[in-house]
Specification:
The protein has 408 residues and is an alpha/beta fold. Helix content is 47%, strand content 20%. It starts with a strand and ends with a helix. Bound molecules: ligand C2E and calcium ion (2 copies).
Length: 408
């Protein structure tokens, strides 16, 4: 792990030392304590911290006021909120801190458990990496993209989508990857956005779709059958020829459209969307399945959702991640799952990163799961190995965990 600079704010010596010691045991780097909000602000002004633990109940300046001050003055990016109060109160303060612009890595009832700390630190590392890979926008030019396509530098990784019950491999999502000769790894968020801006998204989409279809044929030839999920840019939906082009590509590879799930983000179906709906309806008529992606990050309402001829709803990481420790998030997730079921949609939880969240998803009767907890996106070769070797192990470990819990 990278060395982190951590501040633990708690007026109770026992609680503060407990968290500080746990952090040190995890090898986080530098850990210091503050005895109240005012003391914390002083220290935050003096030094730069990667993470601040905030106790809610403190004399002089309480945790609510402290987190607002941190957000307002941009004194830190990431916080963890702790309290001995009711979990739903802690979680709603977490939500408030997030709407102030802080990254809340977790909200926990005291005393903090080691597993909570581990999960939060993992989240911090992921956030740091994503932020760093997003920082470097606008360094790409149209020619880079064309070259990336021509020279086949851009490829696809695949991430498994598993049934919640029984962990059967139901499908894989294709995710674009670019190992650029001079820039190194470039995030798909960066180069897809660039391709949209430079007007080469259609070339990129057809190039990638072809790779995915060829791969699907290879898997089929090896007797491995599962659906292939492929992301479409919202811009592509405005293209009148998209449905025909996609269809022709699929026919050429002798693949049935029903084996392909096309994913479009929730925001593609908001606002003035008649062309988008027309394209989606054409694709659906041709037999493709359609998923509404990143649901929970945008502004689609139930009515907009019901107008789209979708077959699947992908619940965004924002709704899924750490839901087991966030009662209000759970309430939203539960009602979303029920809405999707009423609309006859398959539900997919994205970004499942831990066992507790998975258990909850199982309880909520979510159909499919996808996330680092089961598998990260990987290249096609690795996927076969994962399927033949790792999957059985994952099932076995989960089974053990579940039976251990039912014994307790
Ligand atoms: P997305 O479609 O929502 O894809 C899921 C993203 O979440 C992927 O990021 C995946 O690696 C990541 N992910 C999966 N499980 C977990 C987890 O448990 N924890 C965390 N923290 N992340 C997880 P990735 O590959 O960086 O892709 C980012 C976005 O770029 C995608 O989001 C999609 O919107 C876009 N994208 C990727 N490939 C393509 C493509 O071929 N075409 C288009 N139009 N967009 C693409
Ligand atoms: Ca997707
Ligand atoms: Ca998504």
């Amino acid at each position: 792990m990278n060395k982190l600079n951590v501040l633990v704010v708690d007026d109770s010596n026992v609680q503060r030392n407990h968290v500080m010691n746990m952090c040190l045991e995890q090898g986080v780097g530098n850990v210091i304590g503050a005895i109240n909000g005012v003391d914390a602000i002083d220290k935050l002004l003096e030094d730069k911290f990667d993470l601040v633990f905030i106790d809610l109940e403190m004399p002089i300046m309480d945790g609510v006021e402290l987190s607002r001050k941190i957000a307002k003055n941009k004194l830190a990016n990431s916080v963890i909120i702790l309290s001995s109060k009711d979990p739903s109160l802690i979680s709603s303060i977490g939500t408030m801190a997030e709407s102030d612009g802080l990254t809340v890595l977790g909200t926990f009832k005291k005393p903090m458990q080691i597993s909570d700390l581990e999960n939060s630190l993992n989240r911090l590392t992921t956030h740091k990496n994503t932020n760093e890979s997003h920082k470097i926008y606008n360094r790409l030019e149209a020619d880079d993209l064309i070259k990336g396509i021509k020279e086949k530098q851009i490829t696809l990784f695949y991430q498994p989508k598993l049934t919640c019950k029984g962990l059967l491999l139901k499908g894989v999502e294709a995710l674009a990857r670019w190992d650029h000769p001079t820039l190194g790894f470039v995030s798909p968020v960066e180069f897809i956005t660039a391709a949209e801006e430079f007007g080469v998204i259609s070339e990129l989409t057809h190039y990638l779709f072809d790779i995915a279809l060829k791969q699907k044929v290879q898997w089929r030839d090896h007797g491995i059958n599962f659906h292939l999920a492929f992301n479409l840019s919202p811009l592509s939906l405005a293209d009148d020829n998209l449905a025909n082009n996609i269809s022709t590509q699929v026919e050429r590879h002798k693949i049935e459209p029903k084996e392909i799930v096309l994913e479009v983000t929730e925001n593609a179906i908001c606002g003035e969307i008649s062309t988008a709906i027309e394209t989606l309806a054409k694709l659906r008529l041709k037999g493709f399945k359609l998923a509404i992606d990143d649901y929970g990050t945008g502004f689609a309402n139930a009515q907009q959702l019901s107008r789209v001829p979708a077959t699947e709803l992908k619940l965004d990481r924002i709704l899924v991640d750490n839901v087991a420790t966030r009662p209000q998030q759970l309430a939203i997730l539960r009602s979303t799952v029920n809405l999707a079921k009423d609309l006859g949609l398959t539900t997919v939880a994205e970004g499942v990163e831990n066992f507790d969240d998975f258990k909850l998803l199982l309880k909520l009767n979510v159909d499919l799961v996808q996330g680092y907890y089961f598998a990260k996106p990987m290249d096609a070769k690795k996927l076969v190995h994962w399927l033949q070797v790792d999957l059985a192990k994952i099932r076995h470990d989960l089974h053990e965990k579940q039976s251990q819990e039912s014994d307790n």
